[in-house]
Each structure stands twice: as C-alpha cells, then as structure tokens.
Amino acid sequence: MARKKKFKTEMIADKDGIRFATPEPVAEYRAKRLKCKVIADISCGIGGQALHFAKYCDFVYAIEIDTKKIAFAKKNAKIMGVDNIEFIAGNSLSPEIIEKLPELDVVFSDPARPPSEKKRSIDNLRPSIPEVMKAYSDISSNFAFEAPPQLSPESIPFDCEREYMSLEGKLNRLNLYFGELKKADISAVALPGINIIRKTGVYDTASGNEEPARYAYEPEECVTKAGLLGQLAAELKNEADDISVFEIDKKRTLLSSDSMIKNSLFKNRYKRLLISEPDFSLINSYLKKNSFGKVIVRAAIEPEKYWDVRNELESCLVGERKAHLFVKNDKAILFEVLDD
Question: CA geometry: angle at 108 spanning 102 and 114, to 5°?
Fold first, then answer.
C-alpha cells in the first residue's frame, strides 16, 4: 500500500497530483541543496517542489505542460503566499518557452516515467536527460534530475552524482546532479534529518562471518542501494574495530559488532537474543519464557505464507516485547531492537 503524502499545508490537487507529489521532507532537502538565485523547475506538476524552491531561491520559473496541474500549482502558491515564482504553461523543451527564461543557476527536472515497466531504465524518462541538457545548455550548466531509485549506480551512464535517498526507513528517491552541483560520484541521504555519506574510495563489502556478533545494525536502504555499506563499515572502525558486514540473503544485509554503537545511517540497532535451527516451536517457547508478544519475520517467505508463519511464532504470546527474526541458510537469528 502506498504511503499517504503528508504536507504541513494541505496541497490542492486531484488524486494523481497528490500521488506523484514530492513528499515534504524530500522537497525541503532538495530546495536547500539547490539553493541559488534563479532556478527553473520543469515538469513542476502541482508545484510541491517548486514552492519549496521559492523558500530558498530568489526566483523560480515553474514549467508544466499539463494545464490542469499548473492551475493547481498556481492555487497552491496563492494559498501559501508565495509570490517569487512564475508559472509557465507549455512544453519545457519548446524554444518558445526557453526564450522566456533568463540565465539560470540551476535547472531541475522530475521527468515522467512509464507507470509500469518490467525493469526501470534511465532511457525511459520523458523528457530525457540528454534532451533537457541540450535544450537548456545556453542558459545553464547546472542540472538536477529525479530518477527511479530502483536504478543501480552502474546503470546510469552520465558524469553526475547519484544520490540515493531514504525517507522514514524506505528507499524513496534518486537524485542526479550535474555540473557544479556534483559533490561525489555516489552518495546516500537518510531523511528526516540530513544524514549523508558520500563515496570517497573503494571498500570491501565481503562478509567473513557466518553468525552475527552480539549487536547488529541495519543500514538505511539508501546506503545499501548506493553500494556504500563497505565504506560505512570502514568509517565505523574507530568506534568498533571488529565491525563486519553480515549478509543474510540478497535482500538483507546487516553490520555486526560486539560493541554497541550509534550512527544516523542505521535504520535499526539490534541486540542478538538467540541463534538456533529454524524450529518455530522452539523459537515460540523461547519467546513465551521471555515475555515477547510480537515477532517481525525478516526472511525470504512467500507473501501468502507470511501470516501463517508469523501466527505460528506468535501463538499464545502475551508479553510486551517485540522480536525480529532473520533466517540465514539453516539458522534462525532472533534480535530485539535497542532503545535509543
């Protein structure tokens, strides 16, 4: 189920407009990062991102080909009392539209993409990145694009920064920065807050342990997707020299150490409770004895079987504690989230 978008000030739009609108923490972060004198937001939709640009930039040009969406954007700007923005209805690649613009410090584009496709591709964005950069090359050298976060860093064939973004623990956005906006080849940002890691070298991500140490740390999804887990582990060596990467399966990887540490790029911090064979009755018995009431199953289980497994594990549990169960090969590993 898609998460409902939350806005401090309610945005006016139809269902599709709200569905594709930029979440407020994302819009706020990007507006701060792209702060400049004059920016153009092409394909601005109902104006969620453009209105945040207006908070940090002297002036914003917001272009949208869909007249219904731009009508909503104008109403949203009026409601929020924003007057340093000019809305332009039309094709953002049209020479007639571009001629209306002055020299721009930054061009931002959140291009359209197919609502469904077997595999996300950078080539399916419309307007395409090369088209936008060519069309605006005479009035700007700094570009920022939103792209599908499912794309791997290697699948993006441009000289740009690939910034993966998590929001409330889930992978949410991929931003591409060109020109002077580029700060690294790859980076990861976890929101809310601004928790950033940027690639500075090549680090080994191979795991040498078959079992986790006393504590385990679940990285933000943006870190893993960006391929920066090895770097994060290396940066934490000063706090925990035994820290290692513990790969559970293709979708789940943890950091592990006998030291208790904190980091803003951890989604969860765990204390190891039990390592056993994947015998649900044995695990259920342990949970009963230790006052657990819930078990979050973090394993490769077919969706239709998930609740059968979870109900078996939670049978007759009445406690207040909550456990997380991971399964690696023939071992079940039970954790509890550490309080911050």
Answer: 130
With 0-12 / 13-18 / 19 or more C-beta atoms within 10 angstroms meaning exposed / middle / buried, residue 116 is exposed
Query: Which residues neighbour 292 within 8 Å (Cβ) at sequence distance 6 or greater?
Result: 317, 319, 321, 322, 323
Tokens in use for 335?
């954790």
Distances (CA, A) of 96 to 85, 93, 199: 19, 9, 40
User: Could you tell me the pLDDT band of residue 1, with boundaries at 50, 70 and 90?
Assistant: very low
The SS3 call for residue 227 is coil
Nearest to 142 by CA among 44, 40, 74: 40
CA-closest candidate to residue 334, choices 290, 301, 220, 266? 290
Tell me the pLDDT band of 300, cut-offs 50, 70 and 90: confident
Q: For the whole model, what pTM was predicted?
A: 0.91
Which ranges in 124-180 belong to alpha helices (H)? 129-135
Tell me the three state secondary structure of residue 85: strand
C-alpha 61: how far from chain center: 26
Could you write out the three-class secondary structure of 100-117? CCCCCCEEEECCECCCCC
Q: How many helices (H) and strands (E) does the chain have?
A: 10, 16
Structure tokens at 155: 């699948």
8 Å CB contact between 168 and 191: yes
User: What pLDDT, on a 0 to 100 scale, did the predictor assign at position 11?
Assistant: 74
Q: Helix, strand, or coil here: 236? A: coil
Q: What is the model's pLDDT at position 15?
A: 58
pLDDT greater at residue 330 or residue 142: 142
